[in-house]
């Protein structure tokens, strides 16, 4: 009877509310409310500060006051209540209820109150805020989130937001947010973003992270909403360790084969000539290796070096190394970190089969001028952070250069003493926080290498990258990013010899991409990411021009290649239960090879050669030569076997439309990239992964064991004696075959205490097969054989021991099985000439590789008030003086075949580097 009476009374009061006509444009909310008061005769009661300074526009014709107010306060925390049809009361966050909630007087059979309106019957659970519940010893800041909604009977709500460093404005990654007394928590991602579901009502949130002052904040949550944190640094920043990783994420996330490395992790690892190198640190982790010491490029889980997508702030970097791979082409002081995906690659990434290296540059300090620099035996680095508008925008400027010629000039070898080698790179990044919903970042990058090992040839190569990113928050559930990027890689060879065959040779690849990424959080069960991307390739495959009036070189220019690559993707991180989590993604990729160029057709049933070429058709610019594409599946799952033990499985498939052309064992600066066309098909691949992940002693130790199996098709290799450079019919010199790789990766990692570091072991095999009905297109009789980078056993130990806060000792030990090599196994006579007979390709191996590096790290004093904080690194690379072979080659002397070995660093290499930060 009471409920029925309330319904009748409520209905009557609604009918008594007048309807009005109203129109307003760019008027403050307070003025609009005054207009409503005048038109309706209903007085309003509210606190004016709640309304803010926002202006609104609207137009209503014969509409009731509640309808108008619903429109005005739709996206605000303001609610309203019409009392007896005679006055309007505004509330912030809360709702005015007409009766007490069920159980208020202790009746256990009544759980919630029932509110009835004209259109609905809703079970409502009011939120009560008891100020006396807050600790009496320390008054906490109270924040109210969301607006109570009588249609929403949820017991919990989603809170999300970003956490930033108050001094620098940089996002804080891996920061823990715990709900006091409830056993609920969340961890921020690489952008400082967090998402957590809170019970309705009062909650106390506590933040915790190394180097950041802890904080507590009382949150009264009425509905889904956002809350951003700006936190102060603490002196704990000086208590840094070598390895700082989010061990909980390793167990909790669904994706397999992911690795995060922050730039600081390279600080205490002794590397060649004292250089910090975040990518070289990556090679000490399971599943990532190189073909040899000083080799550029990375082989991930048995994949080729061209199967890695390397991004710097969303722009592709084709050659991320200096000086033949000895140094990275990234300034370590402007680099924030890298996310490496080698198992389940997120659906937003495409175009490569093996891995993604997503490198992020630091955001500049928006509070004060800061910088970091170093001086070493070969290079000097500097990075400056320049605030442009306090708390809003800043600029990061980084420069790096080498002065290594003095090393070459000091060598006894006369040929090398006349050689030169130098490089430099520079980066500029602008970041601006326009408002709470919009951020803009722009990055420009350039690097260049020049070297001359002989007096008559000068080689140089360069990378260029530019990206512009706009991050926008539409509302509490929807965010997005619009990205434009351009990348270029080129190399040149200038030959100036004593004869009349001087020339200049050049190559260039350029790509431009536009990408839209969106994120939608409908509830705590689903996280949707979706978007689309389009990319345009332009490749100048090579040209040669005579240098000087006496040169007899004939100019040659291979026709330009063009193509477009596009994709659309959707993924969902679906929380089935507390134990089971799925990450399901689907990507559809499309590729079109374009003119203007020449479309060549070869006779069916015969091997491709100049003799079997039957047609060469000129294709106009923009016309399509060939198209490829299809769906790519990205699926993974995680299941908790215990509180800190999980098992994960994943399946990953993909397309790769671009290939490297090289007949070198390792990556060379003059390797060229070739787009797929009507004769060269795109590479395709599948990967299956299964792994177990365990944390011990409150995340002090991280243990993982992961296995994988990969298959690939249309892997590119070369025919014996192939001429790859300046070859217009390049398809006649290459083969496409199948690949197969499998392995097991083990990692144990310690992140806390005086002794920290990791031990990684990988057993892996990488095999390829080139079979054909034609003998000239078969390798090793069409059977699977080891790839150039097949190294079954790989062990890495990285350790750092802190004696005090200022002094520490670091060690880095590496052991690898020797890579495959092809040996001459005999000689034979033909037409009165002697020839060498070689074994099957990659049938033998060079000697195993092992190396020990040691370093002493000396921090400056920890006085707070001083201009700069210094850091000395004294290291010895290859302490044992191991003469590790870089390659083995063969010469014939007096009718006898002799094997010779070349090495990069055959003796211990000491170095000392001075770093300072201000």
TrEMBL record:
Question: Which Pfam families does this chain map to?
Answer: CarbopepD_reg_2, Plug
Q: Which GO terms describe its biological process?
A: siderophore transmembrane transport
Could you tell me the keywords of this UniProt record? Cell outer membrane, Membrane, Receptor, Signal, Transmembrane, Transmembrane beta strand, Transport
Q: Name one GO cellular component term.
A: cell outer membrane
Which PANTHER family does the UniProt entry name for this protein? HEMOGLOBIN AND HEMOGLOBIN-HAPTOGLOBIN-BINDING PROTEIN 1-RELATED (PTHR30069:SF29), TONB-DEPENDENT OUTER MEMBRANE RECEPTOR (PTHR30069)
What does UniProt list as this organism's lineage?
Bacteria, Pseudomonadati, Bacteroidota, Flavobacteriia, Flavobacteriales
Indicate the family of this protein. Belongs to the TonB-dependent receptor family.
Protein location: Cell outer membrane
Keyword Ribosomal protein among record annotations: no
**Topological relation to the membrane, as annotated:** Multi-pass membrane protein
Question: Does the keyword field hold RNA-binding?
Answer: no
Q: Which ranges carry the TonB-dependent receptor plug domain?
A: 274-352
Q: Which GO terms describe its molecular function?
A: siderophore uptake transmembrane transporter activity
SUPFAM superfamilies per the UniProt record, alphabetical? Carboxypeptidase regulatory domain-like, Porins
Q: What is this protein called?
A: TonB-dependent receptor
